[in-house]
Amino acid sequence: MMDLFPSRTLTLYLSRLFITRILGVLVMLVLVLQVLDLLSESGNILAHPGNGQAQIWHYVTLRSPQLVARFLPYSVLLATLFTFFPLNQNSEVIAMRAAGLSAHQILAPMLATALVVSGVSFAFNELVVTRVTADLKAWQNVQFGEIPEEPAERTNLYLADGNNILGADTMNGSGKAIRLHGVTWYERDPQGLITRRVIAPLATYAAPGWRLDKPESFDVASAALTRPGPMVVAKGITPAQIDITQADADRMNLFQLHRTIEALRAGGRRTSDLESKWWHKISGPLSALLMPLLGSVAAFGLARSGQLFIRAIVGMALGFTYFVVDNLSLAVGNFGGYPPLVAAWAPFVLFLLVGETVLVRTEE
């Protein structure tokens, strides 16, 4: 196994060069993008009465992990080019080849480093990014105001109970403890025409049905407005149906998303889009492993041939093409065009083969 790597000294040298460049590029990208993001969002944050510098910094703490997670693979790609370009220009790659090392042995320390980065990225996404995403979306839902003690993570719910419809502005809690706020109940005839509308500030689960607190009923036929007192509606709608109405994969870790998918399947709901995102939670961080392979075209070939800059451009183009194809494949998978496994993994396998082919054909 150790034959895949060069000497210990050379392995540590290449790994140290690579990781320092990854961190440098990542910090630069995140700082620039965070400043640009603040320019567009700071006005919305400060528009809410009482918000100030503390809320701006709070937004930065929530947004920065998202930027780190999104642009870490790009950082690995650019760090690959920034590592290989000077190594080739200073003839260090030629010296390694003259010492008997193959292209794969030169690349091995960087691939091992990229694999560690992929593992860190996966853990960071699952433990940090999913939580800050949920907090940020909850804050944005209240226009950067004060978040309720039970954040309304879901908004604008509409569920059918036969011909009738139950709607709610926001939802708190889960299971039988769900509380619906800003509730509207529409009773409709077989032709779909509304016969009665009931509005209430709050609805709780009545097992079965949903108990409306302080309802106001408007009868369409008589145009009469009444206040009938607490009433139970939507007996065919269960808490489980509401729990899975708006599943957001970005707010869930791998295990939470798996449980949501299973619940949706049990209810006969379509899950291909969520399954694609479940697989992509694994394949996405692994994209960092591809970047040294795709960018390695900049490492080989003689610097005096005058094509070193062109090789760097080709390596960058291969890396960015992967991200385009990956996003396109995931979008097609969300619409059911590809099976979930293919949507998440096909770009990775395709560009793994492309990178290996380019490496073999250009190492001389």
UniProtKB/TrEMBL annotation:
<feature type="transmembrane region" description="Helical">
    <location>
        <begin position="106"/>
        <end position="124"/>
    </location>
</feature>
<dbReference type="InterPro" id="IPR030923">
    <property type="entry name" value="LptG"/>
</dbReference>
<keyword id="KW-1133">Transmembrane helix</keyword>
<keyword id="KW-1003">Cell membrane</keyword>
<feature type="transmembrane region" description="Helical">
    <location>
        <begin position="12"/>
        <end position="36"/>
    </location>
</feature>
<dbReference type="Pfam" id="PF03739">
    <property type="entry name" value="LptF_LptG"/>
</dbReference>
<feature type="transmembrane region" description="Helical">
    <location>
        <begin position="337"/>
        <end position="360"/>
    </location>
</feature>
<dbReference type="InterPro" id="IPR005495">
    <property type="entry name" value="LptG/LptF_permease"/>
</dbReference>
<protein>
    <submittedName>
        <fullName>LPS export ABC transporter permease LptG</fullName>
    </submittedName>
</protein>
<feature type="transmembrane region" description="Helical">
    <location>
        <begin position="308"/>
        <end position="325"/>
    </location>
</feature>
<keyword id="KW-0812">Transmembrane</keyword>
<keyword id="KW-0472">Membrane</keyword>
